[in-house]
Amino acid sequence: MASTPDEPLWLTPDEKEAWTGLVSLVLLLPGRLEAPLQHESGLTLFEYLALSHISEAPGRRLRMSELAYLANGSLSRLSNVVKRFEQRGWVERSPDPEDGRYTIAALTDAGYEVVVAAAPTHVRSVRRFVLDPLTAADQKALARIAAKLRIRPADLA
Fold it and tell me: 105 has which bridge partners?
């Protein structure tokens, strides 16, 4: 379908189906993954992802800017969450010894216990809502598509 400079190139039925599917995933899947976490662990999906990413980082330490990217949140949102984690004794923040412009979030043993306790609930939800309905080929296709669509800030590349 041709378009003029003032008129957009409208989506074909197949493109619209792909776009609608993606939007449904982006908007509906987080809630399905979060509900069991909230019920079982009292954590939001964002909180779980933040703790999980720190737990998987070398030395259980991660720059706040990278953590914000990995958990898909702004630095200000993450800062508020990490402040609550600090109050609970789950995370400690300190200047990055390699570059003082950055702040490091370090997971404490208590924080590690929280994420380890919540992980089985999260994995069950990921299997139920994402992996189990897909074939191995579907899973590979999903990973390939996600890699193509991923947007990473230049300073984290």
Answer: 62, 93
